[in-house]
Every structure is written in C-alpha cells, then in structure tokens.
Amino acid sequence: MKVVITGGAGFIGLRLARRLLELGHLIDSSGEERAITKLVLNDIAEPSVPLPEDTRLNFLPGDFGEPALLDQLITPDTGVVFHLAAVVSGGAEEDFDLGMRVNLHNTQCLLESLRALETCPRLVFASSVAAYGGDLPEVIQDDTPLTPQTSYGGQKAITEFLINDYTRRGFLDGRALRLPTIVVRPGKPNKAASSFASAVVREPLQGTPYACPVAPETGVWVLSPKQVVESFLHAERLPAETWGFHRALALPGLTTTVQDMVDAMRAVGGEKVVDRLSWEPDPVIERIVRTWPVRFAPKRALDMGFEADAGISQMIDDFVREELQGQVA
Amino acid sequence: MKVVITGGAGFIGLRLARRLLELGHLIDSSGEERAITKLVLNDIAEPSVPLPEDTRLNFLPGDFGEPALLDQLITPDTGVVFHLAAVVSGGAEEDFDLGMRVNLHNTQCLLESLRALETCPRLVFASSVAAYGGDLPEVIQDDTPLTPQTSYGGQKAITEFLINDYTRRGFLDGRALRLPTIVVRPGKPNKAASSFASAVVREPLQGTPYACPVAPETGVWVLSPKQVVESFLHAERLPAETWGFHRALALPGLTTTVQDMVDAMRAVGGEKVVDRLSWEPDPVIERIVRTWPVRFAPKRALDMGFEADAGISQMIDDFVREELQGQVA
C-alpha cells in the first residue's frame, strides 16, 4: 500500500514519515492492516534535512493542486493520505488569493483525485483550532460552533464540511483533527501567527535573541510534535464506525501561557536564556491570536483515545533532547 | 444602481423582481437609498410566465459560473445582488458533481466577480435550514452548530463561511438567510426534497391527484412566498453594523405538519380536495427530510426585525387568492 503525505517536507510531515517507516504498516479502507510499500512525501519546498535512507520513501516536489502532479501522487495503490500541506494562518491572511488557492481549491482537487480512485482511501486532514473564534464560551465543547475569524480558519472549516460530505458519500474515509498550536517546533520563525509559541522558547534556548510579538499573559492551547504525530496515526487507525458521521474533532491539548513557557525555559536554561527575550507586541499577530480559543473540553477525542501531553516542562525538555542534542546554548 | 437576481426566473426570483420594481429603490454599499435603474434577472431556465413590462427589467439567460456571462451580469454599476440560483436539495443529492459545480464553484465565481468590482456591493444569499441536520436539539438556537447531512446543506453552509470571510475582508457586504421551506409554491413538483410541502396542498387545490412521499405527521418549518421576499428586502436594508460579524441567520418561520396543512386545506376546499391525496412514502425523500429541523428559536432574526407568517391557514388562503384567482378546483 502506498501512503502519501502532503506538506511532507515540513517539520511534522517529516516526523510523521519517520514514524511511518518505523511502524511499517497502517490500516487500509477495508480495515485490514497493510504493509507500507511506498511512502511519498509531496511538498512545494525541498526538505530542509536529508530524508531517511529507505527504499520505500520518495519525495515528489510540486504543487498538489496541479493535475499532472496529482496524477503521479494519487495512484490506484494509494491507501492512505495525510493532508498536511497548507498556507499558514498569517500567510493566508496576508495573501487571500494564495490561501484560497492552496487551502481550498487545491484541497478540492486532492479530494476529487481520491474520489476518482473509487477505493474509498483513508484521508487524515490537519485542521486547526483557528476554525473557532470570536465570541467563544470560556471552554470549547465538542458542539461549539465553528466561527472562524480568519481566512485560514474559514478554509479549514470549509474543508471539514467537504470531508464530511465526501465521507458520507463513500468517496473517501476522512478524519479531520483540529490541531492545537504545535510546541516546540524546530527551525525558524515563520508566517504562522502562532509562530511565537515555539520561537519564544526555541530561539533563546538556541542562543538567538527573540522579540516576542504577543504579551506574556497570552494563552495558548498546545500539543507537542510527538503527540501530534501519534494523533495522526491514531486517527488513521480508528475504525470508520468509531468516527461515525462527524469526521472532525478538536484534539486534546494543554492550556498554557507564554509566561508559563518562559518559566519552564528558565528551569532548563536559567536566567541567561530568558535574557535573550524582548517584548515587541505586533497588533496584527495579536489580533489573530486573540481570536483563538485556549480552553477545551475535548470529551469526544478523549473517549476515542486521543491523548494530550503530560506538561509544558516535558515538551521543552523533549525539544532540548531531540532537537538540541541536550545542549542549551 | 443595477440590481441582479440569480435564479431570477424562479418563482421567488420573479416575485422578488416584481416587488423591487414596485419599490423602485434599495440601499447601496454606502448605506444610501438609490433608485433601481436596472434590474437584471439571470437564470439558466426561461421564465415560465411573461416578465413584467418595465424598461428597467432585463433577462440574461445562462450559467452564472461562466466568466463571459459574469462579465455581463456583474458590471461596475451593480450595487446589490440577490443570489437565489441553486441546484435544489434532491438534485444536488442525486448529482453530486452538478451540485458542487453550481452551488459551490459557480457561487465562488460570483463572489470573485463581486470582489473584483472593489465597491463592496451588497449580497443577499438564499441559504437553507438544510445547513442544520442530524442529532439536533429539540429547538434550534442561534448558536446551534451547522451539521448538514446532505450535499446541498453542506454547500449552503460552506457558502455562508465564504460570505463571512469575503465580508470581513470588505470584498462585499454579505447577508445570508437560512430559508425555511417555502409554502405554498405554485408550479409543479420539482426535485427539491421539500417539494411535497407545497404539492400536498397545491396539487389537490388545483384538481390534481397527489401521492405524498412523506407521512402526515412529518414536521416542516415553513415561510410564505410573500414573507420570504420581504425578508430578502429587510436583509438588504439593514445596516452592516446591525449584522455585525456573523452574516448568516435562520429566518423566523412556523412549525407545522403535513397533517396541519391538509386540515387547513380541508377548511378551504372541503373533503373532495383532500380525497385527491394518497400516501406513498419515498424512503430517499423521507431520509433527507428527517434530517431537517422543524423547531427554531430565531431570537437574533426577530431582534433584527425579521417576521414569520401569521399561520398556515393564511398561507393557504393567500395561495388560493394569488395563484388560483380564488378558485379551488
């Protein structure tokens, strides 16, 4: 069975790829365990790190909305697709046309190519808590309506509706996870409005000064890179009946604040690390971030066996161990 | 100012057109009252009745998703668009591709052509209570999440999300009304799964036998043709500030049952009319109709001045007077 990851050169895509190669199998549309014989990573960007040496693994560069590329990417042996590719929140807000093209139009092309297989392949989609927003209850419940306040959040919500209908019709077997903010991401700050949530600890721990664009009391709903990958795998493995009609849910996460993260970083790296931080509020980022919810009661996800992380300190420790080889700068 | 009605050859489109010609003005994007100098009805079907003789009125046949047609339809003088054109519920369920093309893709083209004007035109969109569905609360509240169970309902919900984002960005000034089932529609039964709700009284009152595809106890949330037209006008006239961020709401209606409608018909036409009815449950129609809600607490709409009808008897009396010239067959 072939497995595809869109956005496969991204940090989470690569992590998921390594985990899939290690596992060696997934569940196909018939509910049977199948060996992964091919794993294709698609991305518009080249991977920033060398890919694992593995004969099953291929990288297919290009735009997943291009018909010619889709013909190569989605072939009759494709049993499972992890759809992670997206223009991030800040990018989709800055360039409406780009966000609509990639996050909505291209995704529709992908759904159509999966439908054309007529094998009801499994699709795991990275949705986002940005699908919520505005005047929200104190704690988000499973039945809190989606009221996105950004183009990115709207595009994620719309994709969930499409996936629900494609699934109901038997065109594919979709599962959409509203991801918390992933912390700690390695790499560099990017255009995601949530970029600060990783950068505020990553940059100082790596020895780089960082100007945080939001206030210390800013709340964030977070999940670790490790746990998001496990959640994608768990979403894929669950039987269709367990999902039932509604194919989207908010993943369990942790409620934290920028200040909590800074305190946990101080515990690991001391005051010299914290001194690398400065505070330069950016009203555009703050406006977007303020629309995101920070407290959830993800009952359905917990009942279905999805798990949150143990705590923010653990998440920072994992980052130092996995990405900095245990060395704080 | 030019005003456009898509689906303008339909029953509601024509009724709205007559009312607009009578009124002679609407509110433009600046909030000013403007004379309607042109009223263009677009539809893929020819109007089934002669259009009113009026120099302001034009009929433009064709598919509103065609770029060449859109260039003619949406011109710089277009101040207001009523977007009524759609593949109906049963049709979109029967032909997925057709529903997606017309209800979603073509609507996106229309939104883009309005955006390209750069004048923030007002857009009134006919959404539907089919955007709700499934395991619903006894009474639908303003914050009940959209959980469509049909492709049609999904396409309506998605369009609401698009209109919200286009409005937030200032590309247009959108207002979406989730229409109850419109009763009594003149004409013939069509592919709308809700077709029975009018046919069950219209056909017998016109002297035609009718096999009702749903059981007498089937509940329906209804609104009259007259009141839906007034609601479209009211939606257009309300200031943008009154709408605020959320540009969609469920219109006030009446909760009735097929049996209530039959009883009201008996009061008007006697037993001989009721004898023209037979009961032939259609599982496909019943499945779709069962997913629709029948009780609402449309607080926000009522607060904003939208109104329901006085009662089902009045709605049937209006039909006999307006469409049958007072003569029951």
Q: How would you portray this structure in words?
A:
- Two copies of one chain form a homodimer.
- By secondary structure, chain A is of the alpha/beta class.
- Chain A has a domain at 2-180 and 224-250: NAD(P)-binding Rossmann-like Domain (Rossmann fold), CATH 3.40.50.720.
- Chain A has helices at 11-23, 67-73, 89-94, 96-117, 151-168, 195-205, 225-237, 240-243, 258-269, 271-274, 283-290, 299-303, 312-323; strands at residues 2-6, 25-27, 33-35, 38-43, 57-61, 78-83, 122-128, 173-179, 181-182, 210-212, 219-223, 248-250, 254-257, 277-279.
- In chain A, strand 2 (25-27) and strand 3 form a beta hairpin.
- The A-B interface holds A 96, 134, 143-149, 151, 154, 157-158, 161-162, 164-165, 168-169, 245-246 and B 96, 134, 143-149, 151, 154, 157-158, 161-162, 164-165, 168-169, 245-246.
